[in-house]
Amino acid sequence: MFDVLLITSTGVLNNIIQIIVGCLLSLLLYYASGNKIKGADISHFQNILIILLASLSGMLLPLTAYGLIPVLGVMFKLGCKPGSVIPLLVSNALFNTQIPFTDPSFIWRTGINRVIFAFVAGVCAGMIINKLNLGETTLLKSKELTSLWEKPQNISGMASLFMRSINTFGIYLVIGVTLDTILHEYVLDTVIDFVFTNPYTMAIPTFFSTYDVVNPFFLLTMKIVYMFLNLTRMSALLAVLKLKGFAAYTGYYSILAILLAIPAFV
């Protein structure tokens, strides 16, 4: 029990630091933009560029899902459409600039496929949302996100922005980190031991052992599977996405995983 409390508290603290960094970056973005996006007449070509930039930003920002929440809030405040917001969440899930330092399995020589796939996945998600002409209230909890910016913000107002972020989404963070700790410290090990030792399930690892596990399609598929097992990230998605949006997000990545698995196992 002490181990669970220690790991959970460390995880919560790390994500709180992420939110602080996200608040700072969102304030800088708000003032750097000069509020020029809201109400602007954006052409189709400019809209595509915004989607490309959003997907790229999701990868370049040194933020995980909770750190992105203040950034999503300021993007709605500035008048960005869902097709320009969702790509951040999509691309960031597979790659962000923290991964080369925190994921020991990441190697640039083989990880470049992951980087490219994350960017393409984000762009495609934005294009699909724009094509379907989905409004901001369809997929995202836009009211909760924009409520972070109810009052004019400045650098001295960062504390209030942070507190509103914690008050609105903190419960998701604590529950998500706690469940993630329990899953990875206890449940997964038990399931893996059962699969490898039970005579009825040993066929599963035997089946996978016959395939090339360094196949790039297989590796990308496993990254998506691991993303679904990251309950901290999943809780952040539940915090900012409506149930319809969460279903669309998980369904989108499930389809991508299936498409990647086909060449990996054929």
Query: Count of helices?
Result: 13
Sequence of secondary-structure elements: HHHHHHHHHHHHH
What Rg, in angstroms, do the CA atoms define? 19 Å
What would the principal axes of the Cα set say about the shape?
Answer: globular
When the domains are counted, the total is 1
Largest sheet: none
Mean pLDDT: 85
- Strands, total number: 0
Distance between the termini: 44 Å
The parts where pLDDT drops under 50 for at least 5 residues are: none
Strand content: under 5%
Secondary-structure content class: mainly alpha
Q: State the helical fraction.
A: over 70%
Task: Note the topology.
Elements (H helix, E strand, L loop, with lengths): L1 H32 L10 H17 L4 H13 L4 H13 L4 H4 L5 H25 L3 H4 L2 H5 L11 H40 L5 H7 L6 H14 L1 H10 L2 H23 L1
Helix pairs in contact: 1-3, 1-9, 2-4, 2-6, 3-4, 4-6, 9-12, 11-13
What attributes does this structure have?
mainly alpha; 266 residues; globular
Characterization of this structure:
There is one protein chain. 33% of the residues are buried. The chain is mainly alpha-helical and 266 residues long. The radius of gyration is 19 Å and the shape is globular. The termini are far apart. The chain has 13 helices and no strands. The longest helix has 40 residues, at 158-197. The chain has one domain. The model has no long low-confidence stretch (mean pLDDT 85).
